[in-house]
Amino acid sequence: MDQNSHAPEVELTAEEEQAKLSEVLQIRRDKLAALKNEGKNPFEITTYHRTAYAKQIVNSFDAMEGKEVSIAGRIMSKRGMGKASFLDISDSTGRIQSYVRQDHVGEEAYADFKKWDIGDIIGITGEVFRTQKGEISVKAEKIVLLSKSLLPLPEKWHGLKDTELRYRQRYVDLIVNPEVKETFIKRSRIITAIRSFLDCRGFIEVETPVLHTIAGGANARPFITHHNSLDIDMYMRIALELHLKRLIVGGFDKVYEIGRVFRNEGIDTRHNPEFTLLELYEAFTDYHGMMDITEELIRHCAHEVLGTGLIQYGDVEINLDKPFERLSMLDAVKKYSGVDFREITTLEQARAAAKEHHVEYEERHLVGDILSLFFEEFCEEHLIQPTFITDHPVAISPLSKRKPEDPEYTERFELFILGREHANAFSELNDPIDQRERFERQAALKAAGDEEATDVDEDFLTALEYGMPPTGGLGIGVDRLVMLLTNSISIRDVLMFPTMKPNKD
Fold first, then answer.
1. CATH number (domain holding residue 86)
2. What's the per-residue H, E or C state across 395-450?
3. How many domains does the chain have?
4. Full residue range of the structural domain in which residue 98 is found
5. Residues 182, 151: one domain?
6. Predicted model pTM
């Protein structure tokens, strides 16, 4: 039976399915062996001069009609009609049809062509035309096999419906699901838009170390490795912050980095052990300045990539053009839980409120920690439209400057959209004495078993003692921003190769 016929599907057992697949695999290898025996090994071809792409031909048909082009791509379908055939070719820009006739390409070439399989990569030279049915096509005059596919594309058998398989074999996912490729094209454009936005505002892009001798800059469990020559344990960075702020001390006014960070934590729809983070720091501004730049940056990316600030995410429309709401954590907790932490002055009162509202806490938690737990429990799910949550307690903000009028809270914000955090920013703490006290509290928490607490970074404290100007700092999760702007449900949908448990099959 022709491999491209559309006979009714018969449900096969797993054993029958495997036997059928094994037969196809053998047939393809036999075809390759025959090609090699005839001196036509496709894997020996090193280059092909392509003059046009599928999307270019379709979009510029009026200008290209009747002209000769050379295209190259993967066979996605074949429809044989005796001495003439149609096939669909997929390249990096899309698909286009080709019409292949024996009397155009030659009897020998056509005989070879009929043996080619879906998935094979080929080159076609011919004239651009429109068929009687109105399909823009390339009328083949020369055809060449550029690479032999030894595995059938998955939809030939069972479709690429297995989400886990799609992530494991992203290369196949990209072949058979064009919308996936579009997501990653948008991801690239979003990162380009970020760089353009910051570069135009005088920021300098820098690179800082991935391997750290101290895990710091965020509360997260690090990956630990060992440097053999130095005979020391080192940490994959969990944040970019502390090295970038050293550059502010050194005299740079505006710096940023877009880089991978690594956190040895769980995997779910929002978290992957390695992810992309944007961090930027600007001297002589504060968290209000960071709110402005965050709002402008996200709006800029939306308009650059999507052409609008109205974003459809599932069945929700997000308005990025409207000024983002600003709400303190205290006010948010009071609004959504009914508990006013301004009236709570002792740890005992905070614990009593937590018990009354069924909020679980640990013995090490202070009032500020419990306030944060209330926020997570009662508030986050309501923050659908862009909302800046400001003025976090000191207990959960070890690198943020205190509010002068209320020193138990800090000049910090997190941006929430769709109930999830998209950005985190501070007026950066530049008091080395205060910073040491907070580092030492973190170190005590770590010694007590908190695996996410940080160490005392003596070199960073030395840098602060030389003097850091008032500075605003911002971190944006690039992957979550891409999820937002591509209507993607899971972070795995916007990572080319998400972290997966090894397949033991």
1. 2.40.50.140
2. HHCCCECEECCEEEEECEEEEEECCEEEEEEEEECCCHHHHHHHHHHHHHHHHCCC
3. 2
4. 14-159
5. no
6. 0.91
